């Protein structure tokens, strides 16, 4: 009986793509927050601090999530992959916050957030799909 292979090339590619996309997402969202706070919009200071804090928290969460997911996929270990899947839920909730509930939502926020949520959805489905085989 052949050993069951747990690593997945499509999942690994998604982790790399998600890392690159999140770097762009982080910078673009940070620039959008700066634009919204310095332009004609009124952006209360308390909301500004909350949005920036949540963005940095999301950055830390995303880095840990991608590290654990990559490590779990490459070493064929289910525990880091499962931890990455749990962290995906938290990161997805923060992405939904920036997509729907932040103080000011622009069309650019929608585009960036929708793409990030699509990547999170694909990364969540691939490990589950693999375990069913």
TrEMBL record:
Q: Does the keyword DNA-binding apply?
A: no
Provide the membrane topology annotation: Multi-pass membrane protein
Which top-level group of life is the source organism from? Eukaryota
What are the alphabetically sorted keywords of the record?
Answer: Cell projection, Membrane, Transmembrane, Transmembrane helix
Q: Where are the transmembrane segments?
A: 13-33, 40-61, 81-101
Annotated compartments: Cell projection, Cilium; Membrane
Q: Which InterPro entries match?
A: Uncharacterised_TM-17
Cell division is among the record's keywords: no
What GO biological process terms does the UniProt entry carry, in alphabetical order?
Answer: non-motile cilium assembly
Annotated Gene Ontology cellular components are: ciliary transition zone; membrane
Record protein name field:
Transmembrane protein 80
Q: Which organism is it from?
A: Catagonus wagneri
From the broadest rank down, the organism's phylogenetic lineage runs:
Eukaryota, Metazoa, Chordata, Craniata, Vertebrata
